[in-house]
Amino acid sequence: MTGGAAGVRATARIAARSDGRGGTALPTLEGEGPLALRRTRGSGAEARVMLVGAMSGPLGGDHFTVEAAAAEGAALHIGSAAATIALPGQAKGEARYDVRLTVAAGAELRWLPEQLISANGSDLYVTTHVDLVPGARLVLREEQVLGRAHEEPGRLTSRLTVRLRGRPFLDQELCCGPGASGGWDGPAVLAGHRAVGQLLVVRPEFAEALPSPQLLGECAALTPLAGPGVLVTALAPNALRLRRTLDEALRTLDGRV
Predict the structure, then answer these.
(1) Tell me: the pLDDT tens digits for 155-167?
(2) E-strand spans in the chain?
(3) Which of 56, 53, 51 is nearest to 38 (CA)?
(4) Which residues are 254's β-sheet partners?
(5) Is the pLDDT of residue 226 over 80?
(6) Residue 12: phi, psi to the nearest 5?
(7) 57, 96 Cβ separation under 8 angstroms
(8) Where are the alpha helices (DSSP H) in the chain?
């Protein structure tokens, strides 16, 4: 980890592989500064890791990176102990939070952190880049809350890029808050809502039978992608309603409803 007038630089690295006995080993579990990693009790073959915020942030000028890779036969679940709050800092310029995920054939990675909250005065650019190969399984959830209670949001830009077999599978970006263009708060985008989220599910069996497109309530929709995956997008007035919608969508995809 490094720090200074330009902000804090910190990286967390996770590598998962089969332990040869029906479970998942974690040969790499390294966190720095504000990105502490803790292995917690998993279920079955799954290894579960929690991101624990050891410091405030990201603040202005900070640059955090999380890198996680699941090798063949591994099952890795990554969550976080609490919401991440983007805050203004003494350093000028935007903060960055980069997530890099790699999933091999026959591996499963579940990226299910708590919400990202854009506090007033903050400026955060988030990127999530996923590399998949055929036969990989992925569950990825992103939830963003614009402002704390009764607070105007900061500026938040979020980009999700997924590549399958080295080719583009999904690439989208959303920018909200002061200075954002494109009518982000208008009826064609957030329509006044303050919580926005998405759930991406990639499974090999979807190559043969994709779920049909459908509405999931008034402000959520399931969209099949051009490949073995589906994307659920949702809007809600608050974080609790958003989580309920995305959890219900995942239960539907898992066949438990």
Answers:
(1) 999 999 999 999 9
(2) 9-18, 24-30, 35-40, 47-53, 63-70, 75-80, 84-86, 95-103, 108-112, 116-118, 123-132, 137-146, 155-164, 167-176, 195-202, 214-215, 220-224, 229-236
(3) 51
(4) none
(5) yes
(6) -115, 135
(7) no
(8) 239-253
